[in-house]
Amino acid sequence: VLERLRPQVERPPETFEDFYRREYSPIVGLAYALSGSRSRAEDLAQEAFFAAHRNWERLASYEQPGASVRRVVANLSVSAFRRRAAEAKAMARAAFGERTELPDLGSGDPEFWEAVRALPHRQAQVIALFYLDDRPIAEVADILEMSPGTVKRHLHNGRQALARRLAIQEDEG
Amino acid sequence: MSLDARARRAAQDLRRAVNEMDHSGPARSSFERFDQLWRRRQRNARIGVILVASVLTVAALVFVARAIPRAERPAAPPIHNGRIVYGRSAPGVDETRLFTVNPDGTDEISLPVSFTDCAEWSPDGTKLHITAMEYPGSRLRPAVVSADGTGFTLLNATSNADLNLGCGDWTPDMSRLVLEGFPETGHPELNGIYSVRASDGGDLFLVSRNPFGGYDAVPQVSPDGTSVVFLRNDPSRHLPGPQTGALYVVGLDGTGVQRITPWGAARSSGKLVAGRPMDRVRRSAS
Hints:
- Chain A is an all-alpha fold.
- Chain A has helices at 16-35, 38-54, 56-59, 65-77, 80-95, 110-117, 121-132, 137-144, 148-166.
- Chains A and B meet through helix 1, helix 2, helix 7 and helix 9 of A and helix 1 and helix 3 of B.
């Protein structure tokens, strides 16, 4: 399952700066889809990149170091502790006169992402990675460290729940 | 529109919005800002580690200090000021005067006090505790005077008009004096070891009362400041000679009084009972 995360020694390692510049936007997008707040999304992304920076020597040898960052974001975004920490950070920013909330991203279908965030955590994570990151089942399974079968089940159940919530006639398996 | 189609379109919209955000807000998304935050976090982490290490070190020291029984702690080293204090009595005159002098006999200073009976250097060697009277015939009270004879202060805050507070010793922190107390007339229950505040003689505290109607004398505070050793007299035993009794120990807080020598054996048991304090020369910072 973790084939893509195993060290690959053939290619020269990417610098963390290049990795950051390449992955920042999609990571923030994933965090936004799962958190619904631009400020929180950027904070979550920052935390995930901090974790990657600490372990970059090891992550740089992986074929997909971004998978690790996505896993951190996916887990942090559903953490109640992380939500409270983000709220505390926002209050601290307000106390120091900084903007507490950045302008919303204004995605075209906020109702859809709101429905995604209302799903059980695992289903929401699978839906976000599958559609937003446009990743195949196997890669989603790698990132979330679950079997492809489990990913398929969460994807199916998530789709069914979204269809009901959004009143869409779902005819796919 | 199917759910799958709507999901893919919503994902495409969000990706586009994120990309536009990235262009409109470079300050928050730039690697330079991330690097700056990373360095700040590393610095804060180092400070945190130092603070935690400091707190743990202090806690460990406090723990170790408390774990060592007080009696096992090394006594503070004596402060040497090099001078000797001694008393001189004029023949036929019931009065003793005090002097300090260098060990080679030079620079003798007559302390401007009279009616004194004993003297004890403070632990830091800067002051002397002496026994004095406010006027001839008044009750004995402790007093302090500097080594150079200045700053004489009679510590007469004690109001008991029948109680004499005689010779004694300093506590190691110089906050209190431990003294032998005895009545002027009658009242044998006043015999005992007392302590008073060294600053003004107030806060009189009875450390131990002599239950035999005899006297308690020459209290000496232990180096760790927790207990007092003194001579206790029992007149019913009719022991031969003056200053005869037994050595006792009691906590400075008045607890745990106990006899530590046989009766009658205290007479020649060293400094404490070698005689009345003024019978011997006391040197500073011995």
